[in-house]
Design goal:
By secondary structure, this protein is an alpha/beta fold. The protein has 15 helices and 28 strands. One of its GO terms (molecular function) is hydrolase activity.
């Protein structure tokens, strides 16, 4: 493990797991402090899991969660309280250790000279100069100057962020570009449905972030605390400031597990799973293999969510497995959908309804999951049908696949970049911010009315790249995004309904219908999903090769 010593009584470290507890105890630590909120990352163990392992090892544990990049005075006070009551030495952790080091620095600033704090944190590998500036500036981080300056700064190193960096480099190789992202691992999230269906191994969907950042692009391994677009500045964890000429915002969205009462406590056990988390998708397949009879629930929250078809993909692949092993006749499949339709583009619904019939699944519309009791194996839904009074119903289950509610990340929702609903406010054609001309956004975080899929980001990246290069040259936007999104609906093992559509539900097929009719289940579409799309993602999209993704020309209205 990477223990970073600040004093002989306090150390910090990146995210730990329950399996690390023996090493933590052997290193002499008597207590741990968790500074990372549950549900922040796709591969993050819950504090409850960490606390249980700590208690078993005779180590005290405290939970002092701090939103990424959002260290407040109350957080510092809570951290100080934990330090005062826990036995020493203490090990604090978060995603990278930066939040913990920041909390310690603010806490120690009341009694320790700042040069001493800076020396201790620097020796541990953390730059706290931004904290010193914030303290010297009366608690506010100054943004008139910065710690670094780039032509283009990209917030987020997911599908959108890496793709736009590669696309920009292919157009203008001399740009100074930085990607800001604290994650060590980059995930091919469309593959998690296949993991939950027993087709892919989870490890096939993960690569190190460092291996994917384009050569020549600076990777700033940190979380964003705030934006100050009036000063062309991004404030990072540790109160560091990065300045930009142009900014691209694509950090993805937040899976809001805590919005469902009792859900976080039972994920990964009691038959409750989700393909929306890397570590849980294998549990989905385990549950499917083990279930021989009983009720299986599949939930879908209100829109927007990433990959609107994913909740029912889990249902179809599970139903297919039970159909093949003979258990289907003993399993009651219930699809609990907060919306009022099976799929938002009507052309694909007839094919999907045939599979609903095949698996004898019951469709329950306007059912929104609000609470889960894992040990009791019950789920509570709020039913809000049009023109009727809302009611709640509690349903027993033996297995439940949950699609969590989804919102914009906290640091986006509170920023000047957000619309009233919390999403980055862009023009849906150019993807340029409506209020700040040198800011663009793509991927799940922005508010254009398109499907939130990796395929959408594949089309958006070239559009944004073209428009940024045009802006650098002093020209107006040249490229338009047409709302394209793709949702390969895995209706059975070996067949997929390949939904491709743009704004307004207009069909946008990539292939002629005689070759592949996306409204019908086909083996060719399955071949694309299983064999072709993963290498296209890793070796083309993330490398700036824009196969079948050239942007449309922007139509300029006549004056």
């Amino acid at each position: 493990m990477d223990f970073k010593t600040l004093t002989n009584k306090t150390s910090v470290t990146p995210q730990i797991t329950a399996d690390d507890m023996a090493e933590i105890k052997a290193a002499g630590f008597r207590a741990i402090i968790c500074n990372r909120p549950d549900g922040e990352g796709a591969d993050q163990p819950s504090f409850e899991e960490i606390e249980a392992a700590a208690n078993a090892a005779g180590i005290k544990a405290a939970y002092v969660p701090v939103q990424s990049g959002m260290v407040q005075d109350a957080d510092v006070e809570a951290f100080g309280t934990a330090l005062s009551v826990l036995p020493r030495p203490v090990l604090a952790y978060c995603r990278t250790g930066t939040r913990s080091a920041t909390l310690w620095s603010f806490h120690e600033s009341k009694k320790r000279p700042m040069p001493e704090i800076l020396a201790a944190t620097k020796a541990a590998g953390y730059d706290m100069n931004g904290v010193a500036r914030r303290i010297a500036n009366g608690g506010k981080t100054p943004t008139d100057t910065g710690d670094a300056q780039y032509d283009v700064v990209i917030v987020g190193g997911g599908a959108g962020g890496v793709s736009i960096a590669a696309s920009l480099q292919s157009r203008k190789s001399n740009l100074s570009i930085a990607i800001i992202d604290p994650a060590d691992i980059h995930y091919y999230q469309p593959g998690w449905t296949m993991v939950g269906g027993g087709i892919f191994e989870a490890s096939e969907t993960a690569k190190t972030m460092g291996s994917l950042i384009p050569r020549g692009v600076k990777w700033i391994k940190s979380a964003v605390a705030a934006f100050e677009p009036e000063n062309n500045a991004v404030i990072l964890d540790g109160c560091r400031v990065v300045k930009y000429d142009r900014l691209v915002v694509c950090p993805g969205l937040k899976l809001d597990w805590e919005a469902v009462e009792g859900l976080e406590e039972t994920l990964g056990r009691n038959g409750v799973t989700s393909n929306y988390r890397y570590d849980l998708a294998p549990y989905t397949w385990q549950l499917v293999r083990e279930l021989k009879e009983g009720r299986a629930l599949f939930t879908q929250p209100p829109m927007p969510i990433k990959c609107a078809g994913a909740p029912q993909k889990a249902m179809y692949l599970s139903g297919d497995a039970w159909f093949r092993n003979g258990a289907l006749k003993n399993i009651d499949i219930q699809f609990m959908n907060a919306g009022g339709v099976l799929f938002g583009v009507k052309d694909y619904v007839p094919a999907l309804e045939k599979y609903v019939e095949k698996y004898d699944a019951t469709l329950n519309f306007f059912h929104n999951l609000v609470a889960v009791d894992g040990p009791a194996k019950t789920a509570t839904f709020k039913i809000a049908k049009p023109d009727t009074d809302p009611e709640t119903v509690t349903v027993d289950f033996d297995m439940m696949h949950v699609c969590p509610p989804q919102v914009a990340p906290d640091f986006i929702r509170v920023s000047p970049l957000a619309d009233a609903a919390g999403w980055v406010d862009v023009d849906q054609a150019t993807l340029r911010h409506k209020s700040f001309d040198n800011i663009w956004s793509l991927g799940d975080v922005m508010n254009a009315p398109n499907a939130k899929t990796a395929a959408a980001a594949r089309k958006q990246a070239p559009t944004v790249a073209d428009n940024i290069v045009a802006d650098i040259a002093g020209r107006s936007p040249t490229a338009a995004y047409d709302g394209y999104g793709s949702c390969p609906l895995t209706v059975e093992r070996g067949k997929i309904v390949l939904a491709e559509f743009g704004y307004g539900g207009v069909l946008k097929p990539s292939f002629p219908s005689f070759l592949l009719d996306g409204t019908k289940p086909t083996r060719l579409a399955w071949f694309l999903k299983e064999k072709m799309l993963p290498p296209i993602y890793w070796k083309a999209m993330l490398k700036g090769k824009e196969w079948m993704a050239k942007p449309e020309k922007l139509k300029v209205a006549a004056e």
